[in-house]
Amino acid sequence: MSDPKEFAAGRPVVLRGGTVLTMDGAEQVLPRGDVLVVDDRIAAIGPALAVPEGTVEIDASDGVVMPGMIDTHRHMWQTAMRGYGADWTLTQYFVWYYLESGRHFRPEDIYAGNLLAAIEAIDAGVTTTVDWSHGLQTTQHADAAVDALQAVPGRFVLAYGNIAQAPAAWTTAPEFRDFVGRRITGDDMLGFQLAFDVTGDPTFPEKPAFEVARGLGVAVTTHAGVWGATNDDGIRLMHDHGFMAPETVYVHAATLSADSYHRIAATGGSVSVSTESEQSAGQGYPPTWALRAHGIPVSLSMDTSVWWSGDLFSAMRTTLGADRSREHLEAHAKGETVTHAALRAEQVVGWATRGGARALGRDLDLGSVEVGKKADLVLIKNDHSPVMFPLLNPYGHVAFQAQRGDVHTVLVNGRVVKHDHRLLGVDLAAARRTVEQTVEHLRSTLGEEAWEKGMNPDVPETTILDNPYTYTDYHSAGTHGS
Ligand SMILES: [Zn+2]
């Protein structure tokens, strides 16, 4: 069954006898369902399906079949530095990447990080990843980012960004326009967004970048509600100038007032919650408890592998934990006891799948297991694991029991990219060599002392570091003890 050639010829594929989580809105669960894939689409769902001659059979019994997961915010270029910043705060991250060492990344280093991140994503059943690519100092860097994404059989969205320049500068450069014309061709496997932050500077220096996004007809994704860096001022500027739209994706949205949440809700945008990141880096408390109260749609994300993995099982688990933790604490402060959890495992599985599709404007063809939709599918099954049975509550099993090692089979756009726990058509050894060259380049450029120190960098005392951008001197008074 694990012969890659078997999957190569575009034959139909059927996943037989799994517990199928459709995530179809009605949240139908088929206890022993088959899912038939023909070409790039889901062709049929049901028990004991008749299938075309030559269909490849995959035994999904004792497993869970679900939509491919969707990560709506990941700085894939940083994966070449996997785990380096495990003990960083957000301020140290800003010092290392934005102010000191990010400029040393060459196009080939962007390629290396993206390549490894893309492979890691499909291995974990993340079939669509938004590459929040803010290390694109030149369009050569951007070409390298796309080259890597196109070298891996996953679905990606390039969210083009550049922390080295003002958004108004890079978005209006002729070479950026040329890049978009050359590389963004409407390919269904490579979406496109603009990625930049709104500092809150009252002169609204980011306005020209929003106008470019509008002219191109693409969504903006922005780190909003990040303690000290972006706040209500940015949301109000976006709103006052008419740049809050249903396709806008607000990342974190943690340190915001009710007024900002009202503006997001009223304009139909969604929030990408990176719970593991918010818990550890300091953007603010993971906001799902507030987003639920305001009826704001949620998707999940892993942010960066310089701290965390690209694994949405972690996102689901930490998001449930943080939301419930908040509820319990607030109840206890009032002398009360939470007797029924408001946030359910089913909801976070929905956020990891359909929520991502909705955020990307792809709810018509991604995010659920329904006939006619794109065949982006995950089979969670591990016959060697004592944790795969009994399978009593499939949503709870996905959110709290399963992990990336249990991802047995992955299909993207109808193509089997992982089967029997092994990636197909991916040269991991080559990716390793590519990443090693990047690590060697950075290590030798920085020098051994700075390399070691970078894992716990000093914070320059003379600079207020909350706003890491150098194109404006604006700093919010809100986080400086005013
Ligand atoms: Zn981020």
From TrEMBL:
<protein>
    <submittedName>
        <fullName>Cytosine/adenosine deaminase-related metal-dependent hydrolase</fullName>
    </submittedName>
</protein>
<dbReference type="Pfam" id="PF01979">
    <property type="entry name" value="Amidohydro_1"/>
</dbReference>
<dbReference type="InterPro" id="IPR006680">
    <property type="entry name" value="Amidohydro-rel"/>
</dbReference>
<dbReference type="InterPro" id="IPR011059">
    <property type="entry name" value="Metal-dep_hydrolase_composite"/>
</dbReference>
<dbReference type="InterPro" id="IPR050287">
    <property type="entry name" value="MTA/SAH_deaminase"/>
</dbReference>
<keyword id="KW-0378">Hydrolase</keyword>
<feature type="domain" description="Amidohydrolase-related">
    <location>
        <begin position="64"/>
        <end position="417"/>
    </location>
</feature>
<dbReference type="GO" id="GO:0016787">
    <property type="term" value="F:hydrolase activity"/>
</dbReference>
<dbReference type="InterPro" id="IPR032466">
    <property type="entry name" value="Metal_Hydrolase"/>
</dbReference>
